[in-house]
Amino acid sequence: MIDLIAAVHMLLSPAILVAVTLGTMVGIVVGALPGLGSLLAITMALPLTFVLGPNASIAVLLGLYCGSVYGGSISAILINTPGTPQSAATVLDGYPMARAGRADLALGWATSASAIGGIIATVVLAVAAPLLARFGLRFGPVEYFALGMFALTCIVTVSREALFKGLISGLLGLFLAAIGQDPLTGYLRFDFNSFQLSAGIGLVPLLVGLFALSEVFWRAAEKPDEGEERVMQCGFTLPPLSEFRKRGFHIVKSSLIGTWIGTLPGIGATAASMISYAEGKRSSPNKAKFGTGEPDGLIASEAANNAVTSGAMVPTLSLGVPGDPVTAVLLGALVLQGVTPGPRLFVENQPLVLFIFLTLFLANIVLFVCGALMAPVFSRILRIPEPILMACVVVLIAVGTYSINSNSFDLLVAFVAGIVGYLMRYNRFPLAPLVIGFVLSPMIEQSLRQGLILNNNNFWLFFTHPIALALFALTAAALFFPLLRPALRSLGKHT
């Protein structure tokens, strides 16, 4: 109790409250600008940690982290551009809602789901951090491969209307991720003697080109009378309480998926949102509406990717192992402040650990308030005439993409991805499977090859791992249950 009182006293300091609020607000703005993202926001703020005190530095960085992950949903909903890779799944239902004149409700759902997901994950973190960390350590290459295969099944679920084209799109994503250096041997592959391709294709240029630039090309190719009339809906609408009750289980489940994925080092929020979206489409009562502007799709993505922000702190604090690149930077910032993450941190510096938990909790509350206040400002872009809006999108794409690595080749990748995205949309190839394949490919390939090395190249030994076996069983159920459902229904009628 004494430690908790000390942590609350630290949190309620005016300087800390200001640091959390400003960090969250700046994070939302940075996250909403396509191409920037959480890593850049936190990296730019690192010099501040030498000026601010340890507690204020932690508060600013955690606010930036939570705010930037949520901020990516704003541009994903309004202009079909995921501001951060973590919001790649948000565009699938968020943008159709905006096109249908429900941008204010889409922002309400995204903000609410983000805040609730972050709060649930923070509570889980505070209660079960050491236990979750130990469970995460049980995941080796075989378990990661099984998890990746389970996540790949979402290609089927998001491509039911055009399954063959969806599989081709997913294979293209898997191939594009293989360009560059072999993760184990270091040999170059599929680089076509291009020095720029030797480093592979960046996720951000691919995403902004595939979704945003292809949207610009699509709008430019439309005749004036062919385009849908855009409803100029601005503001922020909180969903009614009855809707929260109806979708409460879905919100909690998506939050727990994000928390769990966050505890697994190296997976990240992008994969978590994809896995959560796939599970949501499998189990939601409204799964037939996914991809057309269904709030459950928004909830699945946003609750999960914001839950990762707290979940990723589990291995960071408990073991000193960063859960993703962003928490790797946070880990460095903690070390700079004289904090040594690890199992002894929970014993030797309990007030600081509780302060971090409370800061994450407060950051998610501030996220909701700031999101509600700032979303109407962002949503006013829907009032901008479409040619000017599309020109602004192109400028944002160029600036955001170039600012990541200061590399003009990334601009070329985004341009080519935009053309490919336009051709895929024209021929009715779904874009989501390409992104899913691209995001999951490195984890699947590396874990498969490491698992084979550890098991003497005997793939069948993978099935002797209990966690992997359970994930393989879930994968098989997800793939074959839709095929067996008609037979089971007919059997039920006969009995």
Automatic annotation (TrEMBL):
The chain crosses the membrane at residues 12-33, 39-65, 105-129, 135-155, 162-180, 192-213, 255-278, 352-375, 387-403, 409-424, 460-484. The keyword Heme does not apply. This is Tripartite tricarboxylate transporter permease. PANTHER family: TRICARBOXYLIC TRANSPORT PROTEIN (PTHR35342). It comes from the Bacteria. InterPro entries: DUF112_TM. Residues 17-436 form the DUF112 domain. Keywords: Membrane, Transmembrane, Transmembrane helix.
